[in-house]
Amino acid sequence: MNRLLNGDVGSGKTLVAAIAAWNVARAGKQTAFMVPTEILARQHFRTLSRLLSGTGVRPALLVRSAAETVEGPLSAGTLRERISGGEVDVVVGTHALLEGKVSIPKLALAVIDEQHRFGVEQRRRLREKMEEKRRKGEGKQKEKRMLPHLLSMTATPIPRTMAMTIYGDLDLSVLDEMPPGRTPVETRLLSSGRMAEVEEIIRQAAREGHQSFVICPQIDASDPANDGAGRAGARAAVAEHRRLCQALPDLSVSLLHGRLPAAERERTMAAFAAGEIQALVSTSVVEVGVDIPNATVMVIEEAERFGLAQLHQFRGRVGRGENASLCLLVPGAECGQEGMERLRIAAGTQDGFALAEKDLELRGPGRIFGTEQSGRQADAALLSDPALIIETQEAAGAFLAGDPGLAGHPALRAELKTLGEDVHLE
């Protein structure tokens, strides 16, 4: 299996992955579940532990700051020994799973959540991890040839992923329905001169017992290379937190960003989940996976500095309960015409695939192979003629059917071998 599972935020992708991991465990094999952030890893570990409770499946969490099983925390070294000894069925982690110290000898399924947050090099390293057993020649002959299945999950495929889907390297499954009771998130485009209105919306949500996110593109103004769009002069989370504490003195306003110690980030998210924090100012660290059903307001400041995929993910942090929710896109004072057009698209489009198509139209698919992640318009022309793409795929299939090993085309075989060494994980 080499499959992309697309479902909007909150549509049940984690449940699908849990069922797949359960089936893998029944066969005596292991699953690696890789996510982009520790916050998301901890949340998935808790969710999988709940979903798999009573099934006999043994999940574990391995991130840089913690190692844990359902029985409680333990040392990273001990957990690695249990994983390599086959005593863990599902290991959830971040890029820590790519370390050479981590051995997953019975790996049969690799799940990547929100794959667009991983760089090509990280995804290639996971593929190498998946092939370790085959290269080392462990186990039975059949197992030596086994390449683990790949399930890549995302709420908004970026153009590069869509290009790979069109090129046929990924099978595609779509979860096109939301759980009962979900209502679409209302999205408004609001000028930066209306911050007093934004503050009143946050205050009103708190009066109703709900919570709000406020997203900024960087941590502080002195460092434009922070975890966000990272550009000098961008709205900074530290300063915005300080400003909102003064503007909303009657509310509990907290701060979250990637420079804080992992333990502090975990405490802040736990307090927010418990309803102890009414407004959380954050960078893009909350972009994916954070599940706070009581949060009903998402404010994204200088929203043009984020891509369409990020904006859609931010919006997905609210509207996860039964209450009406609101996403406010606030452009910066220097937002240009192109940025405003992207924000209008985000405000008017709820469908993840539709957003990806618009992003493809605006930015191009990027390099289909290799390490470049940004768009390239030269490739976009290839996607403007679906009939030509289908015809090309059929021609390639017929060509390989006549010469599967390319024995009669050694130069092409050598070129494909080189390409195969560089291709990204999907």
TrEMBL record:
A molecular function annotated in GO for this UniProt entry is: ATP binding
User: A single GO BP annotation from the record?
Assistant: DNA repair
Q: What's the protein called, per UniProt?
A: ATP-dependent DNA helicase RecG
InterPro entries xrefs: DEAD/DEAH_box_helicase_dom, Helicase_ATP-bd, Helicase_C-like, P-loop_NTPase, RecG/Mfd, RecG_dom3_C
Is Hydrolase tagged as a keyword? yes
Q: Which PROSITE patterns match?
A: HELICASE_ATP_BIND_1, HELICASE_CTER
Q: Give the originating organism.
A: Candidatus Uhrbacteria bacterium RIFCSPHIGHO2_02_FULL_57_19
Q: Which UniProt keywords apply?
A: ATP-binding, DNA damage, DNA repair, DNA-binding, Helicase, Hydrolase, Nucleotide-binding
